[in-house]
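Hi support team,

I've been running sequence recovery on a batch of backbones for a student project. Most finish fine, but this one hangs at about 90% for roughly twenty minutes before it completes. I'm not sure whether the input is malformed or the queue is just slow. I've pasted the structure tokens below so you can try to reproduce it. Let me know if you need the job ID as well.

Thanks,
M.K.
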């Protein structure tokens, strides 16, 4: 089973539970369009190398497609189709006027010079330009892409259209129309969702502990936001391993050590553990914020957290979900928990359209209110249909998509 077919399993469970119209289900099950492009780039040594890139637009039923662009050697067409599908559902759950999309290039950016990376980025935008625009499809950062790459993309697209186009892309630097609060937004959203789950279970934040898998942008901000809200973070990890401290990690020291050495492993005052041991820690909240497919049938039974708040896309397989249901572990699914990034991207887009910018406090307040509302709508669906939170999130998303399709006359 490929990742796209796996992603449809909870969707199909939601379709059955809510008895969704078969026509609407058929439309939602496939992307509207997926583009594959060849990108020739002149390398520093004078040779020409051809890269493969993708842009998959899963849905524009609720509004323009929205989704990041990732640079990774393992990017595939199935991956971008799946991530585009998740973005459609994520935006619908959050109540955003967006559909879902995803893009990517098969490349290890660490092997490219800055000039080669910029050339690749600009050439990719030229290739997908017919599909994108502030009212058509709005890219954003994803794995191995950042504000600098978004700046190159915006500049290239502005050259193509002949006008300044800040609203065509989000995740930009502040000087180009980026939004305050965007960098921490995904991690903040994971913590907002986890805090709501703690409330449901009657657990005070200062009585809770957390383990965070991953210490990149999402994981590091998730950990910091937990600490800001009085949740003790006892473990974090990166690709080289994990660290643990029962009294709570000094995150400032961990971050400084990672910056100096390239890893969190070995930070003074911590115990080195494996990633598998981190996932099995007896903590209140486990936040998987790394890659997809981390919690599977092989390790799900070892998980001892009371709550799982998914910061990564697709970290849990359907087999693992079944184990968590049986154990009574409360899972806040990715399309709800990690929706903070796209929510603040929406704010950035709105600010670009109006050329009027909000304070960081306003952004944080608006994000928190929207995500708390989404959490409780999903929980209400969970209670109503007697399903877990993942299936309930799809019920909320599919309901909004089906209503829009009916009113638009699509089905």
């Amino acid at each position: 089973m490929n990742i796209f077919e796996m992603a449809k399993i909870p969707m199909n469970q939601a379709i059955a539970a809510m008895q969704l119209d078969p026509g609407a289900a058929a439309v939602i099950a496939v992307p509207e369009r997926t583009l594959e492009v060849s990108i020739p780039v002149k390398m520093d040594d004078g040779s020409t190398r051809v890269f493969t890139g993708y842009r998959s637009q899963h849905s524009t039923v609720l509004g323009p497609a929205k989704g990041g662009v990732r640079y990774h050697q393992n990017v595939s067409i199935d991956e971008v189709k799946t991530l585009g599908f998740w973005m459609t559902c994520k935006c619908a759950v959050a109540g955003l006027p967006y559909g879902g999309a995803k893009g990517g290039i098969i490349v290890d950016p660490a092997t490219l010079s800055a000039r080669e990376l910029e050339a690749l980025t600009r050439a990719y935008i030229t290739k997908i330009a017919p599909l994108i625009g502030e009212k058509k499809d709005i890219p954003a950062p994803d794995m191995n892409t950042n504000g600098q790459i978004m700046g190159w993309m915006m500049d290239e697209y502005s050259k193509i259209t002949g006008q300044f186009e800040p609203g065509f892309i989000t995740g930009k630097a502040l000087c180009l129309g980026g939004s305050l609060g965007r960098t921490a937004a995904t991690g903040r959203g994971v913590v907002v969702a986890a805090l709501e789950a703690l409330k449901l279970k009657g657990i005070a934040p200062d009585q809770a502990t957390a383990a965070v898998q991953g210490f990149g942008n999402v994981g590091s901000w998730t950990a910091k936001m937990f600490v800001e809200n009085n949740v003790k973070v006892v473990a974090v990890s990166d690709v080289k391993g994990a660290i643990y401290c029962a009294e709570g990690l000094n995150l400032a020291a961990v971050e400084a050590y990672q910056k100096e050495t390239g890893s969190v492993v070995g930070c003074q005052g911590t115990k080195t553990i494996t990633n598998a041991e981190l996932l099995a820690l007896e903590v209140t909240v486990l936040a998987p914020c790394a890659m997809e497919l981390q919690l599977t049938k092989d390790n799900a039974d070892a998980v001892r957290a009371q709550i799982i708040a998914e910061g990564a896309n697709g970290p849990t397989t359907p087999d693992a979900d079944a184990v968590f249901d049986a154990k009574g572990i409360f899972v806040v699914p990715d399309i709800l928990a990690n929706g903070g990034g796209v929510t603040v991207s929406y704010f950035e887009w709105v600010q670009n359209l109006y050329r009027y910018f909000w304070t960081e406090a306003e952004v944080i307040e608006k994000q928190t209110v929207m995500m708390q509302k989404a959490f409780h709508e999903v929980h209400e669906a969970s209670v109503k249909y007697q399903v877990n939170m993942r299936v309930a999130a799809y019920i909320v998303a599919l309901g909004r998509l089906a209503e829009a399709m009916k009113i638009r006359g699509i089905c």
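--
Follow-up from support: It reproduced on our side and the slowdown came from queue contention, not your input. The two ends are 29 Å apart (CA to CA). No action needed from you.
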